[in-house]
Amino acid sequence: MKDSELKVSGQPQKEGNPASSVLDHEVLKYSFVSPFGVKQRLRELRLISSHIKNELPWLILALECLDFTTLAGDDTPVNVRNLCRKASHPLSSFATHKWMNDLHWKRVAAVCVYPQRVPDAVQFFKECSIKNVGVASVATGFPTGQYPLESRLLEIKYAVEQGATEIDVVISRCLVLTDQWDALYHEISEMKKACGDAHMKTILAVGECDSYENIYKASLIAALAGSDFIKTSTGKETVNATLDVGIIMCRAIRTIYEVTGKKIGFKPAGGIKTSKDAIEWLSLVKCELGDEWLNPSLFRIGASSVLDDIVTSIIHRARPPAVEII
């Protein structure tokens, strides 16, 4: 995939300035993606990832960039509090081992819950005086987005009022599939306004966007409309986070940075179940966007089950080798 095939033209938007109220269609003019180029780059990235020798720093970073998630219909205050407890001290059961050093203080970046469960998470962290784990809430008719914009904006405002510091919004895929790019830009801009000071992650639901070009265009529009992050999936689609789509979204992020100077975060979510998966995503971001993106302010992993495997892998690699007694 050549950089010349993935570029944005039009009037640059300076970093820190609010998004324009009108979409400049120049940004969509050169949205051509080469499937062959994507496959070739994917092979290169997998080869790079397979040659990583010292995995421990990557695993620690994966833990620190994790949005630990529960988005189930049977979520209760009790299991949300359990989620928060685990998110706060995922390595606490090994705290007495000297070889753990400071690792037992490592925490995930945020927990992610439904709006109704936000107060449970906020209350837990307040009671425990924990200030460095964010509370993210999905909103805007998650996971389908098939609701009127007015009610979706009210959902954002409710979650923020309850104490959410991050909002994961979901776009209307119908707007993508029917080329209603102005409407998509307007929708995301209004969502950003409703978020206020809360960071907004915009979920594209890539498995339902139909084509690489649509994913690339939606990524550009989401970034230009004010998103702090773009996110692959809700985790509820048939196809969720895949590395080929990650390449396309990261190229859109890179293009936005080159044109506007604004850094947009990236969050793959859905289907990330092993520590190996997490390292592959970190390696992709390093290769496509650089080391500047390898921190929780610009990269997150959305998952509900990968934490256990990451913790197990950290313990396995951090534990000193057994001494053989003769």
UniProtKB/TrEMBL annotation:
| Top EC group | lyase
Annotated Pfam families: DeoC
Gene Ontology BP terms: carbohydrate catabolic process; deoxyribonucleotide catabolic process
The record's GO molecular-function terms, alphabetically, read:
deoxyribose-phosphate aldolase activity
GO cellular component entries: cytoplasm
The answer to whether UniProt assigns keyword Cell membrane to this entry is: no
Q: Which reaction does it catalyse?
A: 2-deoxy-D-ribose 5-phosphate = D-glyceraldehyde 3-phosphate + acetaldehyde
Matching InterPro entries, A to Z? Aldolase_TIM (IPR013785), DeoC (IPR011343), DeoC/FbaB/LacD_aldolase (IPR002915)
Q: Which UniProt keywords apply?
A: Lyase, Schiff base
EC code:
4.1.2.4
Q: In which pathway does it act?
A: Carbohydrate degradation; 2-deoxy-D-ribose 1-phosphate degradation; D-glyceraldehyde 3-phosphate and acetaldehyde from 2-deoxy-alpha-D-ribose 1-phosphate: step 2/2
Q: Which NCBIfam families match?
A: deoC (TIGR00126)
Assigned protein family: Belongs to the DeoC/FbaB aldolase family. DeoC type 2 subfamily.
Q: How is this protein named in the record? A: deoxyribose-phosphate aldolase
